[in-house]
Amino acid sequence: MSSLSLAVRDSNTMLRRNLLHARRYPSLTLNLLLTPVMLLLLFVYIFGDVMSAGIGGGGGGRSAYIAYIVPGILLLTVGSTVVGTAVSVSTDMSEGIIARFRTMAIHRGSVIIGHVVGSVLQSVLSVVLVGAVAVAIGFRSTDATLVEWLAAFGLLVLFSAALTWVAVGMGLISPNAEAASNNALPMVLLPMLSSAFIPVETMPGWFRPIAEYQPFTPAIETLRGLLLGSEIGHNGWLAVGWCLALTALGYLWSKSLFDREPAAH
Q1: Which ranges constitute the DSSP H helices of 46-109?
Q2: CA gap 230, 228 in Å, rounded
Q3: Closest C-alpha among 155, 153, 138 to residue 66
Q4: Angstrom distance (rounded) from CA 90 to CA 166
Q5: pLDDT in tens, 3-47
Q6: What's phi and psi for 49, nearest 5 deg?
């Protein structure tokens, strides 16, 4: 069997293993999914009328704020989901199963690849579920074309893959699941410090650079432009650039950490 065939076969096996774990122990996934859903309902039904006053000159009411907030909530969903990846990777490392895998005749990178692909699939499913909640409470994207919908979906997948590779690295450096969850917390906090809930131009001057120069804001603005027809400008290139950079850095970091782990404990 060729090296590529071996890698594909073993990665598929590890993917099935991770999906089986997610199905048998759904509490972590459900808890992480609950965060974006609760924030969506909270900001729409409690703060929606007030927050909409700062969106596009105000006057749109709650329906306008639903349209504005959903793209940010979808990316927050991705960030929340990959926290579970960091926890899963850390759990595998601390329980010694990785050392067992290293004694077996399997492709070395298949363990990490299985985690990454499984996490991306879970992120997509989570985005679909949160999106369904958003549609149920009034979100509509009537002006988006099929190409724009596909581009939005592609961006979510690309962003999910980028964050997942970073989360794998965070899981590898964490001594236990609790530390992994804490290390991955920026994945949830950064969307809240972006343009997800209010426009960047309405923020205090000292805070704007924090919101502007981070990966979530251009991704949110690009997704907002694709789904709602707002101006994308340079945000599209920035979002793709951030995704590619984070994917490359996360992959190299994770591979370095995984390769230097001792063969047995």
Answers
A1: 48-51, 61-95, 97-102
A2: 6
A3: 138
A4: 13
A5: 666 666 666 767 777 667 666 666 666 777 788 899 888 888 887
A6: -65, -40
All residues at 6 or more sequence positions from 263 whose CB lies less than 8 Å from its CB, including other chains: 99, 102, 103
202 touches 54 (CB < 8 A): yes
Establish how many alpha carbons lie within 13 A of residue 213's alpha carbon, considering only the half-sphere containing its beta carbon. Answer: 5
Percent of the chain that is helix, strand, coil (3-state, to 5):
75, 0, 25
Distance linking the first and last C-alpha atoms of the chain: 30
Which DSSP string do the residues of 170-194 spell out, in sequence order? HHHH-SSHHHHHHHTTHHHHHHHTT
Q: Residue 130: enclosing H or E segment and its boundaries?
A: helix 110-136
Q: Give the predicted TM-score (pTM) of the model.
A: 0.86
CA dihedral 151, 153, 156, 161 (to 10 degrees): -100
Please give the structure tokens belonging to residue 141.
């994207």
Give the C-alpha separation, 164 to 241, whole Å: 16
Separation between Cα atoms, residue 130 and residue 67, nearest integer Å? 14
Distance CA 9, CA 114 (A): 11
State how far Cα 127 lies from the chain centre: 9
Instruction: Write out pLDDT tens, residues 44-71.
Output: 888 777 776 666 555 566 778 888 999 9
